[in-house]
């Protein structure tokens, strides 16, 4: 990723896949009821949404959804992303939030943004992101890492170019270079933090894995989606109703702008590394990053 944002190399296929997946997930949800649905009944004030954001939401016609990749062993979100759908401009944008970003939860707690899930589940995750970045998120989609494992295995694995430094950190791998990774190996790869630029390298690997998944999906027949999704739908939890899913799918399928822009928060030059009680944190400057994410999502 560039300093703040860049076009996805496979952006041209994302919107079609996005729409198809939502439709198929809806059908599977109705027929198998494997996907978990969790309604969030909290008012906007308890989700950290202020009056100014409610007005902006209506003016800009943007819907933001929090995507959580959850590590069940740590009971924390290993990855946090905000997907933004602009229904007027007809585009999607993806914002990645660094998991080590410092957020104060208490003197005796782990003060990282990904631990919002640990202390209060998806509701606190939504509230924390809203309050710290002045956003208007009401819904989420959560995927367990076992789900990612199953998705990739269902696709027959993905091809990645592995460095010699990465090989020892991926179970069952014997050589470096281009090769097909299994689901568990791809998860190992996406979670490497000790090679390269720590968490920055890790988010780059996660993006490469996602691009490969999208590439494989684009080459599949629509008739193959139900079998694939039924194998991992039990690992998905969301607060989005089936009616809302259909509405989003309908909107996305009509989008003319076929690229997805990406942003990483905090942006370069607005953060520093710091250790507190021997725990690593990413201290970041709020004003600059709120401005950056608003410029990115709302076009201000």
From TrEMBL:
The chain crosses the membrane at residues 12-29. Keywords: Membrane, Transmembrane, Transmembrane helix. InterPro entries: LytR/CpsA/Psr_CW_biosynth, LytR_CpsA_psr. Residues 77-217 form the Cell envelope-related transcriptional attenuator domain. Pfam families: LytR_cpsA_psr. It comes from the Bacteria. The keyword Metal-binding does not apply. Belongs to the LytR/CpsA/Psr (LCP) family. This is LCP family protein.
